[in-house]
Amino acid sequence: RESLPELLGYFRTNHAIVITGPRRVGKSTLLYQVLSSLKKEDFYYFAFDDERLVSFTEQDFALLYELFLELYGERKIFVFDEIQNVSSWERFVSRLQKKKYKFILTGSNAFLLSKEFSTFLTGRHLDLILIPFSFHEFLVLKNKLPPQEISRLSPSQCRELKHAFLEFFVAGGFPEYLKVREKEILKRLYEDIVLKDVVLRYNIREKGSLREIAFHLLSQVARPFSYTSLKNAYSVKNTTTVIDFLYYLEQTYLFFYVKKYSASLKVQSKSPQKVYCVDQGLVQVVAFRNSVDQGRILENIVYLHLRRKKGLRVYYYLEKRECDFLVKEEEKISQAIQVCYELNRENR
């Protein structure tokens, strides 16, 4: 993964390292790659995704630590996988951090970056959000990585690269799906995110409305939406409920929202937002058939590419003319990007 060097660089600090992202994106695999660079006698490892730990509580951390010491002796690094399954874990982490212990944590939603977590570990954690494979990572997986300079590609390499991109365009970047290409994997993944990570976690009563809104967003990627239009379309009682639904879906990393660019924050907050999905393969397998054209799939891919870059803020522009992406670095607009699947006289 392209994130591996960045993650290894975090070890030069005393901060807790937090790896988060959607389900089945490869967080544990990335974690194992990090651990392979360490000596086994340097760290403890424990996974919290075991059903036998369903009653594990904050008090059990003390017992777990005693067992670690008894079995393996003193070690300075704790590695906790899928830690979000245990409540109040951040108290244990905070207490031992003050004693100079280091933590590597993974979890399947943005709960790890929640207000409560930040309160306990203010200024003492570094975050890495892992999303599905980029096109570069896809090429590495397929053993088709070309020379870095596009100008050095031969005609046959250009053709091979284009074929690889068209495959990536359809399949997306979830590792398990790329291995076996069974569509049921993506369908089940989508259902688990909506039902387990949102409906169950947040105790949603209007389950039907939540599912309809999620499916609507998936089928309308790269298009603007407003809270009011969603409320009216799906008979939700009030706009606040819609705002909550969209926030929960964003916390699972299923969707990202892009604001309209304006010098006025008030105009930004009142304008429709555009929605993008964490993976174009998910859109093509699960969304309403024929509802998403190729141009919008490409726009989704471009958005994900921009999102992977540190320090960028992305907006869309719409006045008399429109532009898909305005990219802001620090306080300056550094790029204006228009996405077209096909360039012709009308859109040139």
Shape: globular
Strand content: 15-25%
Biggest β-sheet description: 5 strands, parallel
List segments where confidence is low: pLDDT < 50 over at least 5 consecutive residues. Answer: none
In angstroms, what is the radius of gyration? 22 Å
Name the strands of the widest sheet in spatial order: 2-3-4-1-5
Helical amount among residues, as a percent range? Answer: 40-55%
Topology order in helix (H) and strand (E) letters: HEHEHEHEHEHHHHHEHHEHEHHEEE
User: Helix/strand/pairing class, anyone?
Assistant: alpha/beta
Produce the secondary structure layout.
Elements: H1 4-9, E1 16-20, H2 27-35, E2 43-47, H3 60-72, E3 77-81, H4 89-97, E4 102-107, H5 115-120, E5 125-129, H6 135-141, H7 155-171, H8 175-180, H9 183-200, H10 207-219, E6 224-225, H11 227-233, H12 239-251, E7 255-258, H13 265-270, E8 273-277, H14 280-286, H15 294-307, E9 312-318, E10 322-329, E11 332-337
Parallel strand pairs: 1-4, 1-5, 2-3, 3-4
Antiparallel strand pairs: 6-8, 7-8, 9-10, 10-11
Helix pairs in contact: 7-14, 9-14, 11-12
